[in-house]
Amino acid sequence: MEAGIVGLPNVGKSTLFNALTAAGALAANYPFATIEPNVGVVPIPDPRLEIIRRNIESQKIVPAMLRLVDIAGLVRGASKGEGKGNAFLGHIRDVDAIVQVVRCFEKAPGGEDITHVDGSIDPVRDIRTIETELILSDLQTLETARPKAERAARGKDRDAIARLAAIDAVQPTLEAEKPARSATITDAEAKRGLGMLGLVTLKPVLYVANVDETDVNGEGPLAQRVREHAASVGSEMVPVCARIESELSELDPDDKAEMLADMGMDEPALGKLARAAYHHLGLQSFYTAGPKEIRAWTIHQGTKAPQAAGTIHTDFERGFIRVECYSVSDLEQHKTEKAIKEAGKMRVEGKDYTMQDADVCHFLFNV
Predict the structure, then answer these.
(1) What is the pLDDT of residue 75?
(2) How big is the chain by its Cα radius of gyration, in Å?
(3) Using 50, 70 and 90 to split pLDDT, how confident is the model at 269?
(4) Closest Cα partner for 319 from 332, 330, 306, 331?
(5) Region 137-142: what's the mean pLDDT?
(6) What is the pTM of this model?
(7) Most CB within 10 Å of its CB: which of 193, 218, 257, 288?
(8) Long-range interactions of 77-81: CB distance < 8 A, separation 24+
(9) Closest Cα partner for 101 from 72, 128, 127?
(10) E strands, 160-213, in order
(11) What DSSP string describes 232-276?
């Protein structure tokens, strides 16, 4: 899963990115990589992996990973190349989801003023600024794509016909200053063509309210406005204090636990953000466990067993026979796979099985 962190200048976007990736680097026994100066890969906190490890001896744990991209700050006019607009829009096309950091603090921790690009603090205005630039960019995409699609459609090219149907279906929504994901599209050809257009406003958006240290749970008026806006568009909001996260990322586990308790926080931001992203994107995890490794795998809700097997290796999907599975809670209760079988909790499922969250699986295949 790859998420692009976006936001206007001086909202704390890069501070949050640096804190999250540093926290990932300090996670014991977990892999971490900085692929480029603005890209980091961090493990997704998952307590179920520890439950599996307590009951199944293994050489290592491999958690699901979240790839974070710190995308260049956006300003008004980015869709026309203002600021780093071209770089911004180029990077954002490649991510699965957009995480927009919104400033919900008046002053910096030391009391100094941090100038807002628009001269005042208004989180909903900031959200709309970025959304407007993305909508304008998508309209330009359609303007460029239409003539080519029309030419190819005259030659009965099926994909071009689908793209043209999608353009006609989604353009009125964008012209009404609404993102493409809010369009109601019923035509099957238009639905098929929509994914070919590369529209950035189709991507799901998750909002991070960057709050100050006195409002870590996002209960203040600025954060509440972001929460209400997120709810109104079918999204979610996660309150985060980037300054606190930056400090937490530098502490050892004992000191981190003490600071979290002092601040009235249950966990660092990475866990909250990962869970919100999973929920918003309709994702879930299944696990494989053996003497060499225990690994978490990410799939979409509703995925069938052969396609889940394919996330491990394409041969597993191609030669899928069946899957033997049980839940993490079964393992927690019965302690061993032998006891799970004896209790009748080990299930044998075929090609039509819909994967459940927290399944622990042994796939059988033949190629």
Answers:
(1) 58
(2) 23
(3) confident
(4) 306
(5) 93
(6) 0.84
(7) 193
(8) 77/133, 78/133, 78/137, 79/133, 79/134, 79/136, 79/137, 79/140, 80/136
(9) 127
(10) 205-210
(11) HTT--EEEE-HHHHHHHTTS-HHHHHHHHHHHT-SS-HHHHHHHH
Quote the crossing angle between the two packed helices 123-154 and 221-232, to the nearest 10°.
20
DSSP state at residue 202: G
Helix, strand, or coil (residue 61):
strand
What count of other Cβ atoms lies within 10 Å of the Cβ of residue 113?
8
Residue 212 tokens read as 């100050």
* Sheet of strand 237-240: strand arrangement: 33-36, 39-43, 65-70, 2-6, 97-103, 205-210, 237-240
149 with 190: CB under 8 angstroms?
no
Beta strands in 241-366 (DSSP E): 283-289, 294-300, 320-327, 347-349, 359-365
Using DSSP's 3-state secondary structure scheme, residue 328 falls into: helix
Average pLDDT, the chain: 88
Q: Residue 275's pLDDT is what?
A: 87
Per-residue pLDDT band for 1 (boundaries 50, 70, 90) equals confident
